[in-house]
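User: Fold this, then the next.

Assistant: Folding the first:
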Amino acid sequence: QLQLVESGGGLVQPGGSLRLSCAASGAALDYFAVGWFRQAPGSEREAISCMSSSDGSTYYLDSVKGRFTISRDKHKYTVYLQMDSLKPEDTAVYYCAATEGLVCSRSVGFYDYWGQGTQVTVSS
């Protein structure tokens, strides 16, 4: 059974950076499509990035393009989300998700495994 644990959230000033980690246990992520989502209070959970297992192709939400970068470590047990030039509107709980498959998706319902979430607050 795959388990995911996020870490790296916290309080950061506007313009700052954070690196979120999503550590997998129970299986390596070689054949899993992975995604990062976020949910702000009163809002639906939205996909901000995902990475396919087939070719490493990626997707980014328009509002984070050029600021956020998804990556995997070479041993395929951890997925990262590097977040730069953070804005107050990036404040949310961030979740990583995974599902067996080659191509990732922006759909919440596509993913079978979820982490517990990590809070990111961008404020001066």
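Now the next one, as you asked:
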Amino acid sequence: EVHLVESGGGSVQAGGSLRLSCAASGNTFSWSWCLAWFRQAPGKEREGVAAFDSLTGITYADSVKGRFTISKDNAKSTLYLQMNSLKPEDTAVYYCAADPLGCSLSSPSGMDFWGKGTLVTISS
């Protein structure tokens, strides 16, 4: 059993910042797994934002490079997504996901475990 619980979403104006957190737990969960953030905007498909993979390192979607930073604190069992210089097009439900076999930002369907998401709304 693996549990992923996101928090930190909210409403901010364009140019602002938010930090999302994902608390991970479970008797089969390991911090060596691939951990990632995905998002889904209204009427759009789920897309990858950032991933932390022990084999491939850290990857970001082109749309967030230079603005978002993914990090993790193993001692706190928490994955983070620091989001700066937010834009209205960043508005979406953000999901934390994990997979023991690795992950790709272009393949959300390949992730085994998901949180329920946290809503981020950016106003212009």
